[in-house]
């Protein structure tokens, strides 16, 4: 249903921590101009963990309004409470998002049956396209391929963002379910490898700062132009590493600030990028022609 470069967009903030409305509009326009295929508003990279519900809903609604049907908008709606995830998903639907991205419930570590019931409940409760998100390194919860296989039979579960850290795992999900849902890479360093295995695109942190190149790489991969895809991915490789020198979104917010697009403000408990990493991120931006 969706494909290409889907940016996990940051949420810009003023120095006092308030949402920066002007910078939010600037980012949306930046991605539209660069050819980004979709924006994920208020996912992990958008600091969903520290936005309250009113802010969360407001950012989704504003991104949809600014986009004005010029780009696909998805809402980050996952939570470790099924009830809370349902409320956020309803907010995404009401705001006009075209899909909801739903991370596995974090911290409380449900069993596979609990994960199946969580996601199947959300799919039945909110009639919109839904994309699963598996990132056990952040959540302490791993959505196994056999559970994805069961969920793939639910019509409005249309995809999964796979960020388990295992290419073999992602390939297994594609083999089991690729005819029923789309797989998207959730780890920038593996984007091309996973697209070569059959993924339809990526949900990318790197796309925040190099959106045109990320779109170019995805389109080349989808069209089977391997030499072009490899050449573009090589220009992005340093960024893929540099933007994860500290916890996401710390480096990418610093990078966007260096580019003059937003301020570098994060909400606690996240703290500014350590000075020792500034030059590494700066040089990676230059290699990708982002500076």
What does this structure look like?
The structure is a single chain. This protein is of the alpha/beta class and 291 residues long. The protein has a single domain (4-223), classed as Aldolase class I (TIM Barrel, Alpha-Beta Barrel), CATH 3.20.20. It is 46% helix and 13% strand. The chain has twelve helices and eight strands. Strand 1, helix 1 and strand 2 (38-41) form a beta-alpha-beta unit. It is found in: Cytoplasm.
Question: What tags apply to this protein structure?
Answer:
8-stranded parallel barrel, 8 strands, TIM Barrel, 46% helix, lyase, EC 4.3.3.7, 291 residues, 12 helices, 4-hydroxy-tetrahydrodipicolinate synthase activity, schiff base, alpha/beta, diaminopimelate biosynthesis
SSE blueprint and pairings:
Blueprint: E1 4-8, H1 21-34, E2 38-41, H2 53-67, E3 72-76, H3 82-95, E4 99-103, H4 112-125, E5 130-134, H5 136-139, H6 145-151, E6 157-162, H7 167-177, E7 182-185, H8 191-196, E8 201-204, H9 211-222, H10 226-242, H11 250-258, H12 278-287
Parallel strand pairs: 1-2, 1-8, 2-3, 3-4, 4-5, 5-6, 6-7, 7-8
Helix pairs in contact: 1-2, 2-3, 3-4, 4-6, 6-7, 9-10, 10-12, 11-12
Pathway: Amino-acid biosynthesis; L-lysine biosynthesis via DAP pathway; (S)-tetrahydrodipicolinate from L-aspartate: step 3/4
Site (Part of a proton relay during catalysis): 44, 107
Main location: cytoplasm
Unreliable segments of 5+ consecutive residues: none
Q: What is the string of helix and strand elements?
A: EHEHEHEHEHHEHEHEHHHH
Task: Return the structural class.
Answer: alpha/beta
Strand order of the largest sheet: 1-2-3-4-5-6-7-8
The N- and C-terminal alpha carbons lie at a distance of: 33 Å
CATH topology description: TIM Barrel
Main CATH class: Alpha Beta
The CATH architecture category equals Alpha-Beta Barrel
Tell me the count of domains: 1
Radius of gyration: 18 Å
Q: How many strands, what sense, and barrel or not for the largest sheet?
A: 8 strands, parallel, barrel
Shape call: globular
Report the count of strand segments. Answer: 8
């Amino acid at each position: 249903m969706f494909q290409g470069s889907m940016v996990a967009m940051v949420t810009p903030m003023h120095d006092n921590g308030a949402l920066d409305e002007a910078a939010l509009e600037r980012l949306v326009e930046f991605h539209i101009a660069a050819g980004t295929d979709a924006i994920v508003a208020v996912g992990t990279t958008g600091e969903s963990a520290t936005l309250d519900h009113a802010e969360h809903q407001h950012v989704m609604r504003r991104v949809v309004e600014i986009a004005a049907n010029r780009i696909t908008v998805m809402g980050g709606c996952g939570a470790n409470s099924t009830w809370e995830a349902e409320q956020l998903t309803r907010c995404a639907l009401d705001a006009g998002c075209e899909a909801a991205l739903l991370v596995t419930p974090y911290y409380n570590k449900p069993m596979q049956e609990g994960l199946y019931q969580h996601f199947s409940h959300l799919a039945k409760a909110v009639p919109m396209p839904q994309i699963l998100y598996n990132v056990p390194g952040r959540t302490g919860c791993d959505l196994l391929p056999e559970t994805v296989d069961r969920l793939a039979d639910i019509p409005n579960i249309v995809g999964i963002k796979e960020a388990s850290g295992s290419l073999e795992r992602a390939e297994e999900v594609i083999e089991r379910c690729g005819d029923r849902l789309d797989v998207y890479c959730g780890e920038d360093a593996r984007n091309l490898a996973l697209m070569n295995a059959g993924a339809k695109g990526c949900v990318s942190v790197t796309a925040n700062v190099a959106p045109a190149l990320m779109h170019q790489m995805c389109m080349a991969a989808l069209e089977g132009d391997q030499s072009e895809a490899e050449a573009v991915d090589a220009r992005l490789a340093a960024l893929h590493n540099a933007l994860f020198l500290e916890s996401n979104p710390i480096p990418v917010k610093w990078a966007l600030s260096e580019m003059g697009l937003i301020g570098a403000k994060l909400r606690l408990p996240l703290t500014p990028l350590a000075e020792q990493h500034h030059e590494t991120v700066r040089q990676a931006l230059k290699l990708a022609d982002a500076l």
